[in-house]
Structures are given as C-alpha cells and as structure tokens.
C-alpha cells in the first residue's frame, strides 16, 4: 500500500453501558444514562486512545453518547460537535419497552429486527436503510469538513455504526448483525486511503474482556 497510503482514520465508538442496556430495554432515541460499568468502560477506552491522534470528535446528541464522549475526550470537550443525525435508530412504539415484552406482543417484527434487518418495517419506526442513509449523509459532511485529513472520532450507537461498517464492506444490511458483536464502548477503525478507498482495520474492539 506504499502507493496508496492511509491519509486519515475514522474511529467509530459505541457508547458505554446504560441502565436500559442492563435492563434489556429498547432505547432507540429515548434517553438513558451510563451505569457505573459504562463509565468504567469509557475510562478504560480513554486510556487506549491516548496515542490515537484524534483531533476532532462528532457525537450523537443522545445523553448516553454525550456522557461517553465527555469521558473519552475530556481535553477536547469544548470542541465536540453534537449531531442529531448520529442518533440511534428510531424504534417508534417499541422505545422504553422491555425486549421480552416486545417479543411476546410483536414476534414477527421482533424476529425481523434481529434476524432479517433488511426486512424490518415497523409502523412509525425507521428502517435500517433509513438509518444508514442519514448516517452516510452526516459522515459525508464530516469528512468534507476535515480538509486537513485529521483523524476523527464518531461516538454513536450500535445500529448506526453497524450500518456504516456495512457500507465500508459493501455488505448487505441483511448481514448487519453478523459477528463480531458490538459491545458497549467497542471501537472500530476505518482507514481512508489516498485514492478515497476505505478499509476496516479494527472491528468492534472491546475496551476490556469481561464485559457482559
């Protein structure tokens, strides 16, 4: 790759564990907060980002992502850009409900969400394709703003990040949930090369091994 060097790196980071993650409750765009475990995850990841070279941070406007970004990038906190377009998939009537209750009341849509995401079409909710479209639109603006090719962090949510990684790999959204699992505070790194091509160099790296 000497003739096509890496000119920029994009760090895609999922927020830390929240109270609703712990309760197995659908979050979507409703607000939840980091647990003590989520705070610990972010602090450990912060120590691993010390030499990352990240100089610009974009973050979902959701509280859980904002909390995570403030821990990860304390020195850049006044420069973090918060973006509604980086929020999680809107889940409509599911938001705030336990996944176990959703599975019981709406088994077909629940199955589609977790097993056939490209077919998920819940009335009043976003589709995975719609999430990917807005995520890519915002990412395009982010990269256009980065004229000096500085390394960038995006702090967001599992579904949104997964849709971006599907795009990088030219992978259909039907395979969105394929391994590896994206645990809380997992970080994926996308290398951007001189010719504009992109490749994942780190996929869903976890801050530490004992996460549940």
Q: Spell out the helices and strands N to C.
A: EHHEHEHHHEHEE
Low-pLDDT parts are: none
CATH architecture classification: 3-Layer(aba) Sandwich
Query: What is the CATH topology classification name?
Result: Rossmann fold
How many discrete structural domains? Answer: 1
Intertermini distance: 38 Å
Structural class assignment: alpha/beta
Looking at how many chains there are and whether they match, the oligomeric state comes to: single chain
As a percent range, the share of strand residues is: 15-25%
Please report the total strand number as a whole number: 6
The level 1 CATH classification is Alpha Beta
Task: Explain how this protein is built.
The chain is an alpha/beta fold. The protein has one domain: Rossmann fold (3-Layer(aba) Sandwich), CATH 3.40.50. It contains 7 helices and 6 strands. Strands 3-2-4-1-5-6 form a 6-stranded mixed sheet, sandwiched between helices. Strand 5 and strand 6 form a beta hairpin. The longest helix is centred in the middle third of the chain and has 18 residues. The chain is globular. It starts with 5 loop residues before the first strand and ends in a 7-residue tail after the last strand. The relative contact order is 0.22.
How is the secondary structure organized here?
Layout: E1 6-14, H1 19-23, H2 36-48, E2 54-60, H3 63-72, E3 81-83, H4 99-105, H5 107-115, H6 128-145, E4 151-156, H7 158-168, E5 187-193, E6 198-205
Parallel strand pairs: 1-4, 2-3, 2-4
Antiparallel strand pairs: 1-5, 5-6
Write a brief caption for the model.
The longest helix has 18 residues, at 128-145. By secondary structure, the chain is of the alpha/beta class. A six-stranded mixed sheet has the order 3-2-4-1-5-6, sandwiched between helices.
